Amino acid sequence: MRLPHDEIERRLAGLPGWQHEDQFIRKRFGFSSFADAVSFVNRVAEIAERRNHHPFISIDYKYVTLRFTTWHAGGLTSEDFDEAEEIERLYASKETT
């Protein structure tokens, strides 16, 4: 179910660095090398496959940008935020290799 604006803002407050843009949440992650960025993307892909919920992924040298939305709901759902929270834990742990 699509989240109302106040719930989106509440959930976003718990995700430092994430931004709400139209029907997406987005964050840019930085790494020390291209290889580290790609390793992170591979781990994100594992999470996305397990959850069957796939972000838009952009790699720009040492930076990875992720964007989430739930197309079948027409906007943001708890799935987007739950997965973003899991990815935040992955990034914080630096266990991307």
UniProtKB/TrEMBL annotation:
<dbReference type="InterPro" id="IPR036428">
    <property type="entry name" value="PCD_sf"/>
</dbReference>
<dbReference type="GO" id="GO:0008124">
    <property type="term" value="F:4-alpha-hydroxytetrahydrobiopterin dehydratase activity"/>
</dbReference>
<protein>
    <recommendedName>
        <fullName>4a-hydroxytetrahydrobiopterin dehydratase</fullName>
        <ecNumber>4.2.1.96</ecNumber>
    </recommendedName>
</protein>
<dbReference type="InterPro" id="IPR001533">
    <property type="entry name" value="Pterin_deHydtase"/>
</dbReference>
<comment type="similarity">
    <text>Belongs to the pterin-4-alpha-carbinolamine dehydratase family.</text>
</comment>
<dbReference type="Pfam" id="PF01329">
    <property type="entry name" value="Pterin_4a"/>
</dbReference>
<keyword id="KW-0456">Lyase</keyword>
